[in-house]
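A protein record in our archive is deliberately plain, so that people and models can read it alike. The tokens are whole numbers drawn from a learned vocabulary of local backbone shapes. For reference, a complete record is included directly beneath this paragraph.
>
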Amino acid sequence: MRYLSPSRYLYSKLSAYPAEASAQTDARIKKRLEELSYLERISAPIRRGKRFFFSRQHADKEKVVWYWRQGPRGEPRILIDPNTLSKDGSVALRGVSISWDGRRMAYKLSQNAADDATLYVMEVGSGEVSKTIYMQEGRVVFVIEEVEHVVGGEADRPLGPGERSPSPGPRGIGEGRG
């Protein structure tokens, strides 16, 4: 009696499997994996002031969409949808932080999966976006300003039109009331 190992037996069966059937099976497996990868998910709500915030992964969208509602039974409104920020999907939402009173949301956006990101602050009610960071009681703590400068060699100086800095970055400007 001749003994075939389980792997040798399966190999012999698979090698006899017609190429058409294999392609159909591959297509079914790919379709099923896509169905399982794109599931509808929703986060637990976060209460800030009288507003509730949550994220939702739509089955037909690549990136998570953030929503807010006024009170527990309010109508959900889109806060930020990274799927609409670029035609090619190159803009990514890197982080979200909501103020305790629910009036503002800070978030970071990055281009082309880059490690660096730009920080923005949104007024939730109006959707107005700025680069001013607020703390409790509406106090302005930090203003983000893109500053281009030349470092080293000659004294640090602002760049002129058309000049580029090797490493532009944000700079904080004072403290004050907003």
Summary: The first helix runs from residue 6 to 15.
